[in-house]
Design goal:
alpha+beta, 6-stranded mixed beta sheet, 5-stranded antiparallel beta sheet, 3 helices, 11 strands
């Protein structure tokens, strides 16, 4: 039987434990995000990586098969910039040689019904970009000058949108 004096103490202790667990669960060790990744296409159909660096730097990017199981996230391409990308917009072809970029893993052919994600980061894990998810069908719907990226609304909801390159450049860093 609980004494009436122990109940408030136990409730406070249980409340503190719940708050501590919630904080620990939401404060995992992640790399801070300070750039936004997107994709586009050239007029002759080449896939383009698009990176809007908001304030710091990004020096590479990885395209991988998206999966909830980290062990099933297979890299299908990776690139390193010749010099770290500083604030502003950068683009490079993913499936052909690109000036200022070196393919550290050449892009493998994309498969239909597979979800891919493009993500940017730094060698020292100091900064990263948001990722953009897409399928081959999403890529095929793109037209030159349009960028697909995952936008985060003011209320925290994430959704894929396609906008002009100019609009991407203007809007991408707004919710960082």
């Amino acid at each position: 039987m609980w004494s009436t004096t122990l109940r408030p103490v136990f409730r406070r202790f249980a409340g503190a434990v719940v708050v501590g667990v919630a904080l620990a669960a939401t404060s995992g060790c992640t790399v801070p995000i300070d750039a936004v990744a997107g994709i586009s296409v050239t007029s002759d159909g080449h896939l383009i990586g698009v990176m809007m660096v908001c304030g710091h730097k990004i020096d590479g990017a990885v395209l991988y098969v998206e999966s909830a199981d980290v062990d099933k996230q297979v890299t299908v391409g990776s690139w390193t910039a010749d010099r770290p990308l500083t604030p502003g917009l950068a683009t490079w072809t993913l499936d052909a040689p690109a000036s200022g970029w070196r393919a550290t893993k050449s892009l493998a052919p994309l498969k239909s019904k597979t979800i891919y994600a493009l993500y940017g980061g730094t060698k020292d894990n100091s900064w990263s970009s948001s990722s953009v998810s897409f399928t081959q069908a999403d890529r095929d719907r793109l037209t030159p000058g349009k960028v697909r990226y995952d936008s985060v609304s003011d209320n925290g909801f994430e959704s894929a949108i396609t906008v002009s390159m100019a609009e991407f450049k203007t809007r991408a860093c707004q919710n960082m």
